[in-house]
Amino acid sequence: MRGAGWDGGDVEQRHECPRLRLLVLQLLIVVSVVSPFLIYGWFDGFGNNWLVRRPAVVDVDSLRMRGINLPEPTELAKQLLIRNSLPPRNVDLFPSLGDDRVIIVLYVHYRPSYLKLVVSALSAVHGINETLLIVSHDGFYEEMNAIVESIRFCHVKQIFAPWSPHLYTDEFPGASPGDCENKDDAEKLSCAGNPDQYGNHRSVRIVSLKHHWWWMMNTVWDGLAETKGFDGHMMFIEEDHYVLPNVYRNIQMLVLLKQVRCPYCIAVNAAPLDVKSRGEGFGKLVAEKPGNVGYTFNRTVWERIHLQAKPFCMFDDYNWDITMWSSVYPTFGDALYTLRGPRSSAVHFGECGLHAGYSKEHASECQDSPIDLSNGIENIDRVRNINPRWPLRKVRIKGYASGFRGWGGWGDMRDQHLCLCFSSMYAEPLDHN
Ligand SMILES: *[C@@H]1O[C@H](CO)[C@@H](O)[C@H](O)[C@H]1NC(C)=O
Ligand SMILES: *[C@@H]1O[C@H](CO)[C@@H](O)[C@H](O)[C@H]1NC(C)=O
């Protein structure tokens, strides 16, 4: 068909026509390649080049088609989803990471003065420049963001919980106008919500911490390009945990020792279970019940935790740690120990009531830090102070209070459902063939 005109045409037609077609084709290609950039611009809202931007971490629409119904993100939440997929900062300053690195995850809400102190402590940690620091924010606060953006001492990646109740002012996961409050009778008042086992309705301030913790765990292990193939350990600290300069080297040593000295340990810790204790100070390693300061574990353990997503999300207690002890760990079968040194290398200094620090209005309830650094940091805390040949003392874990049903605060089915969505938002789509 195409050849018909050529064969019958004169010389001029035979040469000019294909050249014109080629030109039009070339023009079409150029236009189709360039036009998206003309329409959307070369840069996104954060000044990142379009060509190197990576896909958003969570595609809410395609998850919905798979039956995973996350709440519709607000405009800010949508921007946070894009931010979460940005590469870490300072990659140019530290071209390679240590093979034996322990990734540090710092989870924060809104206590800027605390965060400043913790960041300055982290800057003095020996070995910090060999690893990645992930800061997970419960919501978005510009002051908190600015403190983290000032970090120059290691690779740092920020993630922001896009379904933080703090980002939703008049709808779930925030409080909605039609919600029941306190001990309201849902039927009489025809308000929304299920009360917990003690008859209390959900409180946004109370549920946000457990939501953030579970969203963060799922995200750092399963939702980031930076950690996808990582099968080492991650250490978790909060914005009111002051780390000492030896914390990283001590944790690395404990990770090695765990494998050979404490096969029944699932984690290592930077501090004793009792947050007020600085440790015994003796020449022994300690295996005990895992505490909340600088707990460190690997993907194998995360996978065991993740398998228990349903008990975690359905347990009626607003504390993530009590939920773990009451609904997740008991399924592991045996008692769970953590390995630590006899002297803490991270110190809990927060004096805010559990929730006082979690809103701007209550920030004043926080007292000054009780940690005494007036004499500076002692030399023993500047270098690794764990001796691998020390004997091990096992502090026997007393049984769980079996039958404990939780302190409540987590009875609303919407919270339980959101928590379950977090558990599956990074799962690969099932192949239905
Ligand atoms: C990391 O910091 C130490 C000092 O603490 C320094 O000797 C070392 O060269 C740094 N490494 C990198 C990759 O910057
Ligand atoms: C992860 O930690 C557990 C508990 O200490 C250990 O049994 C397991 O071998 C570790 N996995 C890897 C891949 O190192």
TrEMBL record:
<keyword id="KW-0333">Golgi apparatus</keyword>
<keyword id="KW-0808">Transferase</keyword>
<keyword id="KW-0325">Glycoprotein</keyword>
<dbReference type="GO" id="GO:0006487">
    <property type="term" value="P:protein N-linked glycosylation"/>
</dbReference>
<dbReference type="GO" id="GO:0005795">
    <property type="term" value="C:Golgi stack"/>
</dbReference>
<keyword id="KW-0735">Signal-anchor</keyword>
<protein>
    <recommendedName>
        <fullName>Alpha-1,6-mannosyl-glycoprotein 2-beta-N-acetylglucosaminyltransferase</fullName>
        <ecNumber>2.4.1.143</ecNumber>
    </recommendedName>
</protein>
<dbReference type="Pfam" id="PF05060">
    <property type="entry name" value="MGAT2"/>
</dbReference>
<comment type="pathway">
    <text>Protein modification; protein glycosylation.</text>
</comment>
<keyword id="KW-0464">Manganese</keyword>
<dbReference type="GO" id="GO:0046872">
    <property type="term" value="F:metal ion binding"/>
</dbReference>
<dbReference type="GO" id="GO:0008455">
    <property type="term" value="F:alpha-1,6-mannosylglycoprotein 2-beta-N-acetylglucosaminyltransferase activity"/>
</dbReference>
<keyword id="KW-0812">Transmembrane</keyword>
<keyword id="KW-0479">Metal-binding</keyword>
<comment type="similarity">
    <text>Belongs to the glycosyltransferase 16 (GT16) protein family.</text>
</comment>
<feature type="transmembrane region" description="Helical">
    <location>
        <begin position="22"/>
        <end position="43"/>
    </location>
</feature>
<dbReference type="InterPro" id="IPR007754">
    <property type="entry name" value="GlcNAc_II"/>
</dbReference>
<feature type="binding site">
    <location>
        <position position="138"/>
    </location>
    <ligand>
        <name>substrate</name>
    </ligand>
</feature>
<feature type="disulfide bond">
    <location>
        <begin position="313"/>
        <end position="419"/>
    </location>
</feature>
<keyword id="KW-0328">Glycosyltransferase</keyword>
<keyword id="KW-0472">Membrane</keyword>
<feature type="disulfide bond">
    <location>
        <begin position="180"/>
        <end position="191"/>
    </location>
</feature>
<feature type="binding site">
    <location>
        <position position="348"/>
    </location>
    <ligand>
        <name>Mn(2+)</name>
    </ligand>
</feature>
<keyword id="KW-1015">Disulfide bond</keyword>
<feature type="binding site">
    <location>
        <position position="240"/>
    </location>
    <ligand>
        <name>Mn(2+)</name>
    </ligand>
</feature>
<dbReference type="GO" id="GO:0009312">
    <property type="term" value="P:oligosaccharide biosynthetic process"/>
</dbReference>
<dbReference type="GO" id="GO:0000139">
    <property type="term" value="C:Golgi membrane"/>
</dbReference>
<dbReference type="InterPro" id="IPR029044">
    <property type="entry name" value="Nucleotide-diphossugar_trans"/>
</dbReference>
<feature type="disulfide bond">
    <location>
        <begin position="262"/>
        <end position="265"/>
    </location>
</feature>
<keyword id="KW-1133">Transmembrane helix</keyword>
